[in-house]
Amino acid sequence: MGRLLFLNTLQSSWLFMSSDHDTAFIDLRAITKRYAGVTALDSVDFTVQPGEAVCLAGENGSGKSTLIKIISGVEPATEGTIHIAGQERTTLNPRISAAAGVMVIFQDFSLFPNLSVAENIAFATQLSTHQRFFKARASRDIASAALDRIGVEIDLDARVESLPVAQKQLVAICRALASKAQLIIMDEPTTALTDKEVRRLQGIIRMLKDEGVAVIFVSHKLAEVLEVSEKVVVLRNGKKVAEGPASDFDTQSLTYHMTGRDVPIVPPSDVTAGAQTLMEVKGLGKVGSFADINFELKTGEVLGITGLLGSGRTSVAKALFGLVAPDSGSIRVDGQPVPIGDPQAASTARIGYVPEDRLTEGLFLSQSILRNVAVGRLDAHTSSGFLNMGDLAEEAAEWLRRLKVKAPDIEAPVQSLSGGNQQRVALARWLSRAPRVLILNGPSVGVDVGSKADIHDIIRDLASQGIGIIVISDDLPELLATCHRILVMRDGRIIDTLDGKSVTEDDLAHRLAS
Amino acid sequence: MTKLFPRDFWTRNETLVAGVIVLFCIIATLSDPRFFTITTVSDLLRASIVIGILAVGAMLVLVSGGIDVSFTAIAVFAMYSSTVLSLAIWPGIPWPMIFVISVIFGAGLGAVNGFFIAFLGLPTLIVTLGTLSIFRGFLLTFIGSQRISDLPPSMRDFSRGVIARGTTEAGNFYSIPWAVLALFFVIVLTWFILKKTMLGRSIYAIGGSVESARRIGINVKWTQFFVYVYVGALAGLAGIIHGSVGRMADPFSLVGLELSVIAAVVLGGARLIGGYGTLTGTMLGVALIVIVQNSLIVVGIPTTWQSVTIGVLILLGTGVPAYRAKRAAAQAG
């Protein structure tokens, strides 16, 4: 005990001398966190100055979330010292941390869908004053002040459930501001936003910085992060492996630090000569959703379909697999017509569809990997009404090996896997059915950089085997890394067909937004 | 224009239920002009008191994201025990004191639910299914299973007290008892809690998202505990009014009514997932259920069809908005 005290004094006197200490809003020194023998953070120093935008990058399991939990008081550090706003915090809990001005905006925003915008923004503030009575007028005043601060107009009386995602996020930001946030931590703030919305968010963040509010981003989308951050901190396996001004990094070097290996951007190879027309889509349309969709897909070709949220890209993807019933048009695979609006017919024609939201649409999360893969192959391994489990398991294991799924064993539930591995399981299910056409909707949403590159490798590899692949995505680097041709959609129509090899990212972004 | 009607006016359950009530009244009046008289209104009002108070409680639980099926058992337990206690100790006890005792009994039993749900974190349906059985069994085993018609005289006095009574020109008798004031009191008090206190807003917030509520520092446990104690207290009040107005303490009454009460609340727009429910909706739901139970006969539908009608109303009343929401979501996606 005496020794510990001594150590503490020693450390604080040392900290007192350091230049950061007086000015930094957050000052963590030598933070170590162990969970039951696993070291999640290993002696990490981390500072955030008032008004500074810091990007915290790292793959899943790198210790990002642990660091955030320590700053926000959710988890205590095993070792190390924490200063917030110049004060040493030996005991920290969410309440103390929030009172000091640390606000976390979780990926799900933690809003109340059933309450009004005004109440969502003002609730925490009103709660913190320990008032017993609810004053609707005060609630609206607090909310409109916060909205004014970021220059946004949202109907104060609207229920939050009726708002689009981007506005929900703004409500969450306003709530943090109303609670006198000095530091706003945003977990994956851009995942669900369109390009335009991301730009607005970036503007708001710049404004907050000018007002002295610091921001920590936790994000996978590297390019966006570099655009608004001043400082980048990269964690890998619980250690800080890189730190510096954002201008010193580019996506390539950031990826290198995060993964510890070089992930080269490989341009797609040419479509093999003599490729045949595999899929023909003619005049596909659905009133109020999309119209006049025409394209051809060749064997071994990767075709990108992109567009902003609401451009109809997802509806088209679903329509190709029959999940959305089009009103008109035709689909042919190998010259044979495929009845539209019928997933079973699409499946028989050997079209495969991996949905964007694999968590709710694509996988049975609590079920084993084996069952998730095998569900697509039950027919093939049934003899006289009985399943041949041995064959099923063998086949599934083979696919998991080929796709390099990292899993303890085939019986582990899918929810125990990382995003990248879950996506591979979803792929394995379809690949085991030997598809002719594979539709991938957002193949790397919520997947970290390393796995993303692997998934792109898999896509290229599958194409080289002659499968026609349609990638639906708004991740421009992903499209450029995988697609031979890119269809750009707006308002339900294809407005552009671009060559994947010659188009640049800026050009693509410009065509999307214009 | 927008101030007069909230923007979602036409799609709300309240509007739908009110529409069905008006429609029913028109049909009923057309088939029997005697329907639309003060006699009918006073009859329906009287029938709404107990179910109305219970429904306010049930609504509060649904808003908080739980469900309570034990409140009828609490009501009858509190009513019967406070009557037995009064008769044993002080038969001349004034009625307000019996009421207070019954409310305290109710709150105490509600606290039992609250303890299991808020502090042990058990599922609300399981806890209240359990306590429904326990409270009822305990009452019949240890307190008594005899109907008591010899109530303390003050309870009879209470039931005789009327705000208004008289005879219509057509010779029909009507009366509006004091007990109606209890319903109004409960509505006003609950309205105040839900709309004007942080506690009330916290109940809505918890119903909307428990996790978010915790994250912004709402004391989830104590708020939940309050909900079940309050509901218990309301059940105690409803129970003793039921006993007084019916002039009998019957340990077998009330239990079985819980599903009708919850049906009324759900018809009024409260959602089983929590976070949604209004007093207006609840009262309209109660009115509809009471009308169906008491006046269906007027439009020529046999009483045996009551429960079928209620079931159809629930399916339509909750199904139509749910189907619409699903369609809207599909369109947006």
From TrEMBL, chain B:
The chain crosses the membrane at residues 15-32, 44-63, 69-90, 97-122, 176-194, 225-245, 251-270, 282-301, 307-325. Keywords: Cell inner membrane, Cell membrane, Membrane, Transmembrane, Transmembrane helix, Transport. InterPro entries: ABC_transp_permease. It is a multi-pass membrane protein. The keyword Cell inner membrane applies. Its main location: membrane. It is found in: Cell membrane. This is ABC transporter permease.
